[in-house]
Each structure stands twice: as C-alpha cells, then as structure tokens.
C-alpha cells in the first residue's frame, strides 16, 4: 500500500511539474509573439505574423515603405551571453547598383547574417570600425568608397551588429537585449529582462533604416554628379 501511495504521489508531482512547465512555455511563447506589439499602431496596415524564431514579425508600411521587424535570439557565441537582435528590413530605392553587408565583431555564430551569400570579402574602409567584416558582390568594390563616410556613424553605434544595403533596400541588425547571466550560466536558459520593445524604440529603428536608405541615395547621387562634372 505504501509503495502504491508513493507511486501515486510521484505521479501527481510529475503531472503538476509538467503542467507548470507547459504553462510557463505557453506564457513565454505568448510574450515572444507580442514582443513588437507596440509597433502595430505605428504602421499603416501594421500586423504581427508568425516567424520561425517564435517571436512575431512586425510588418506594414512606414512612411510609404514596406518594412519588417523580426527579433532573433542568438546564444551560440563562445564566452558571450545570449543576445536578442532585431532585424529591421526596409524596401526602398537606395540608388546603389551593388549589394554588400558590414558585420560588426563577427564570431562565426551569426546565422542571421546574409553576407555568406555574397561572393567577395573586402577590407573595412579606414573610417569604419576595424572589427567589421565586409562582404559584397563584384560592384561593391566601386560603390563602397563612395558611401563609406555615410555609413560610418551607423556602424559606430555600439548596438549595431550588421548593416546590409542593396539596390532595393536596407537591413539593420540591432541589439535589443542581453540574456540574464545567472539563468544562462546555471541552466543554459535563454531569457531576457526585456519582454516587449517600446513604441518609441521601434519608431527610432524604423527612422534609422529610412534615414540610412535616404543617405545612401543622396551619397550615390552626389558621387554621380561629381563624376559627371
């Protein structure tokens, strides 16, 4: 009888633990999906769509441009706490005829970087942070010197992880949060103190991407005029 009671108690404890674990997992999933919910009202046709990362992607129009913001949790880098990145993609005419990506402080764990699909590596321009890995297509060799000064302030931002520019738009990767040290070191739990991104920060990211596309367009147009003169 005693053994039966012990087994029953163990079963109830296991069931209770499973219920709590499932409830916590559902709560975390709900928080992840709503991480960018504050930005829905900022965008024309703003909406949250599912993403493989578990975080919802914010989509819509920002000042007439199609945009998408996606949080990406990354915990693969050696000797570094987990990072929560926000990728901000904005479609716009940049005036460029080349594509390239600048990646700050590469560790080899940046699965979200697009530079691996670009065929050529370049040395970072002198006024860029020298821990920047640069990749691009063949035409990037001509374009990079023309717009290097325009991109230098963005790449110097401590929270900037990557910058991708192409003829059809730009993409920024920005640090949103860093993982909790205790939870990660003890349990390898990837959790962040930030549970949602404020509307003001979402707006700032959108403006940064739009401003970058406009500055690229102006810099490229200026260099064309100078060459023509």
Strand content: 25-35%
Overall tally of structural domains: 1
The total of beta strands comes to: 9
- Reading the helices and strands in chain order gives HEEEEEEEHEEHH
**Roughly what is the average pLDDT, rounded to an integer?**
80
Estimate the global geometry from the Cα principal axes: globular
Alpha-beta content class: alpha+beta
Main pleated sheet? 9 strands, antiparallel
Summarize the amount of helix as a percent range.
25-40%
State the end-to-end distance.
98 Å
Return Rg in Å. Answer: 22 Å
Number of contiguous helices: 4
Low-confidence stretches: 15-31, 181-188
Largest sheet strand order: 1-2-3-4-9-8-5-7-6
Can you tell me about this structure?
The protein is of the alpha+beta class and 229 residues long. It has one domain. Helices cover 38% and strands 27% of the residues. The chain is built from four helices and nine strands; from the N terminus they run αβββββββαββαα. It has helices spanning 2-33, 140-156, 181-187, 199-228; strands at residues 44-49, 57-62, 65-74, 83-91, 100-104, 120-122, 132-136, 160-166, 169-178. Strands 1-2-3-4-9-8-5-7-6 form a nine-stranded antiparallel beta sheet. A hairpin with a 7-residue loop joins strand 1 (44-49) and strand 2. Helix 2 runs antiparallel to helix 4. The longest helix is centred in the first third of the chain and has 32 residues, at 2-33.
In a few lines, what is going on in this structure?
38% of the residues lie in helices and 27% in strands.
